[in-house]
Write a structure and sequence with these properties.
Blueprint lengths: L3 E6 L7 H11 L6 E6 L5 H14 L4 H19 L4 H19 L6 H9 L1 H16 L4 E4 L18 H17 L3 E5 L2 E3 L5 E3 L5 H12 L3 E6 L4 E2 L11 E2 L1 E3 H9 L10 H6 L4 E5 L8 E4 L9 E15 L7 H13 L4 E6 L4 E6 L3 H12 L2 E15 L3 H8 L4 E6 L3 E7 L1
Parallel strand pairs: 1-2, 1-7, 2-4, 3-4, 7-11, 10-12
Antiparallel strand pairs: 5-6, 8-9, 11-12, 13-15, 13-16, 14-15, 16-18, 17-18
Helix pairs in contact: 1-3, 2-3, 2-5, 3-4, 3-6, 4-6, 7-8, 11-12
The chain binds aspartic acid and magnesium ion.
Amino acid sequence: MMNIKVFKFGGASVKDAPAIENLQSILRRYPDDKIVVVISAMGKTTNFLEKVLAAYHDNSADVSVLVDELQRQHVDVAEQLLPDPGSVVDAIGKLITQLRERLTVSPSQNYDFDYDQIVSFGELLSTTLISGYLNHAGIPNTWLDARRLVRTDSTYREGRIDWEITARQVREGVEAGLTQGGIVLTQGFIGGTAENLTTTLGREGSDFSAAIFAHVLDAESVTIWKDVPGLLNADPKRFDDAVKLERIPYEEALELTFYGASIIHPKTLKPLQNKQIPLYVKSFASPDNEGSVITNCRLSTVIPSYIVKDNQVLITLFPKDFSFMGVDNLSNIFASLAKYRIKINMMQNSALSLSICTDNVGDRLKKCMAELRKNNYKVKYNAPVQLITIRHYTPEAIEKAVGTKKLLMRQTSRATVQFVVEQ
Ligand code: ASP
Ligand code: MG
């Protein structure tokens, strides 16, 4: 199989009927290409399904009313898109019935397991609706169930990929789909275990899904269609002078996503870099424009890039026995951090303490800290704090991003400076 292009459309690009019509017009621009389209749940559906799940677990709301609303949202869009929406509305109805049935089972002890079984319906609904619409609009397509293609272990909400089985399943599925003519359409974000149980790959994981498909298909490129003109050096909501980066080397993009640039899911780049598959980020609103490309290249312009993360927690750990923060203490602490999958966004040690800045992952973080307390560490918190990272910093860039904010911790390396400040 050669020359496949993988396209990923996120929630904003399929949020309503006009958005889905626009997706269709983008696909029309590629009549001669072999295309695999990976699609997220519509708009804010994943957030909505998280509410359904919460209500299912704690009875805080009537789940059946919420599911009615979910159904209505999708049926409304189908009715706007299709003169004769009957079969698509039926297909939506079938999924909604499955979801309702799932919600009559009593909640399990494993919240993350229930999460995946329920929240995954967002992608099933969106792709079912869009597949039906595209067929009607004269873009024949094969709908593939990503739960039977992307094989993961049973780490619910963060499924780990079995690359070998995934490669075989994806190649078989996509090849069969493409030989039918037309395009192949599937879900981002979701996968399945050997026991056919649904898993998800982490919030915003559809980018990663697109990279998985591209990697195992040796695709020629991946394009992420977004509501921004490309990869910017800063979040335009925070910096009104944000500019587009045209060409970004994989390593630079990896650094940016590591520090929390939210434009691309951090797991996306590795599978692409391994096979030297370029990743284009393009605007779905202006598909004629160039966008950005992450590939094997040199950074087109070396200017400061800013990454600001809110709601961080700054934790300082002190050995209760006043021992030095040496390798023994560090290795104990890191073992606990690894066990609870706590990601370190920045860290610094002194003689008697270690400070780490991390995302507030709630329960997992609490359990981890409880374990460290038991192992004789005193734990101090600062929260919420903000983490500001500047790549290719200059004095002016620091002044612009940090200004008079109250500084809690700072770290400088050759290319990167980071500040933890009061939020
Ligand atoms: N729908 C999922 C989410 O909103 C996955 C994605 O959009 O990438 O997190
Ligand atoms: Mg989404």
